[in-house]
Write a structure and sequence with these properties.
This protein has 156 residues and is of the alpha+beta class. It is built from five helices and nine strands. The model has no long low-confidence stretch (mean pLDDT 90).
Amino acid sequence: MRAASLEFPDFTAGARQMMERVELEDCFRPAFWKHLRGYALVEPNDDVVPIQAKFGRRADSDPTLAWNFLTSKQPIWITGPDVIAAKLITGKPLKILEAIKVVPHGVQPGLVPVKLYSQTKVNPRRDDLGVKLVELRSSVKSKTPELAGGLKVAAK
């Protein structure tokens, strides 16, 4: 969100290797998270993947996100973290047809610090907004559960 520009190199072979080797413990290492910046075009075959759809029985139900078994000849794009989660949930690697990395370059000029909810200062030149949102969520969770729910969505 702060990069001056982005590059999208091919990462197909690297994504396949990472998915084959990943273990749950890797997900707790912040250094590993940087390898998840990307997207993969997958062909699900009885795989658990995140799908947004109307799952309610009412006609006016809103679409929501859920992890479901899916088989499709039509490939779908999913995020790097979702590729890893799908593999960890079932133990079965997804069929990756193509993958790209998202590589940020530089920092946008003119970015200034802001305060979230009048208490959490975020400096976009050095802070990770996702981390700051999670920290803020933790501090307001017991007092303002509605705000905490919104922050959880924003942090994703």
